[in-house]
Specification:
alpha+beta; Beta-lactamase; 2 domains; 13 helices; binds glutamine; acetylation; hydrolase; EC 3.5.1.2
Length: 314
């Protein structure tokens, strides 16, 4: 069912504006530089959005700036694959446990005989892409694109500059893709999968898109703006489990301690938090901490969680 957005409470608008003001002058962290394009995105950009399950929302800052979705894409590809194969297959072929290592760790793969452990490290994300039932790279991509568009409620596009930058510098991910194949966890051609994965990371989204994509998860799998179901209701909890345990890589525990919500970050500077049944929070600020998570994005989410009493642990 399509909701008619109501007006957001003034305390929500105030909290979003306050979060922006408080943290805008925080200059900690650094843009990702291993993907050359990302190093050049203006570091001062900062946007915060919150959207409730009725579609009402409040935003502040650079919420219309299009940035690379990067690892947050892994959430939405997972949604599609869960709809195709179901949670049991996903758990046995990939898993739902932290690796305790950085998102692009080869050591983690070696330690677990090639099992990626979760779909949010690069290895697990590529294994997830390989599970999509498709005979060609184009068909694989079409599934991904249709899913992202349904979540966002509009047609998203790939930032070709990001894609080219990343495709020219993704030798490490290509290595991971071949390793996965050698261990039997890659279910399509490794180079096709790595390329489709690189393309999904290069999709351009705004903070407004991200919060819309996230609120569909808060809303039981239905995008409240279009009224369309974008993932089966039974697959929402598995997605939120993965976000709870693995959303911010090897510092997910720190995040959960402070924010108390399932989250997901990307090296493009985006970050998403989901409050089941209530709302989603999205933030965008390019400088990252050492684990690869937006510094200001985490602070904004923590502030909103605390101020609006959104933590699942309270
Ligand atoms: N495209 C990036 C990579 O594969 C995504 C990583 C991320 O956002 N953590 O390295």
């Amino acid at each position: 069912m399509k909701h008619t957005p109501t007006t957001v409470d003034s305390n929500v608008i105030q909290a979003v504006n306050e979060a922006l003001q408080r943290f805008a002058s925080n200059h900690h962290g650094k843009n990702a530089s291993y993907i050359p394009y990302l190093a050049d995105v203006p570091s001062h950009l900062f946007g915060i959005s919150i959207m409730f399950c009725d579609g009402s929302h409040a935003e502040a800052g650079d919420t219309g700036y299009a940035f690379a979705i990067e690892s947050i894409s892994k959430v939405f590809t997972l949604a599609h694959v869960l709809d195709e194969v179901g949670p049991q297959a996903l758990r046995s072929k990939i898993g739902c446990d932290p690796t305790g290592e950085p998102f692009n760790s080869v050591v983690a793969l070696e330690l677990h005989k090639g099992r990626p452990l979760n779909p949010f490290v690069n290895a697990g994300a590529m294994a997830t892409v390989s599970l999509i039932r498709a005979d060609t790279a184009q068909a694989r991509w079409d599934h991904i694109q249709a899913t992202y568009n349904a979540f966002a409620g509009r047609d998203l596009t790939v930032n070709e500059e990001v894609y080219t930058s990343e495709a020219n510098s993704n030798q490490h991910n290509r290595g991971i893709a071949w390793l996965l194949q050698s261990y039997g966890y890659m279910h399509a051609h490794p180079m096709e999968v790595c390329d489709v994965y690189t393309r999904q990371c290069s999709v351009a989204i705004t903070c407004h898109d991200l919060v819309t994509m996230g609120v569909a998860l808060a809303n039981g799998g239905v995008n409240p703006l279009t009224g369309k179901r974008v993932v089966a209701a039974k697959n929402v909890a598995p997605i939120l489990s993965e976000m709870t345990l693995n959303g911010l890589y090897d510092t997910t525990g720190d995040w959960y301690y402070k924010v108390g919500l399932p989250g997901k970050s990307g090296v493009g500077g985006g970050i998403l938090a989901v409050v089941p049944g209530v709302c989603a929070i999205a933030a965008f600020a390019p400088p990252l901490d050492v684990a690869g998570n937006s510094v200001r994005g985490q602070l904004a989410a923590e502030y909103l969680s605390r101020t609006l009493n959104l933590s699942l642990l309270h």
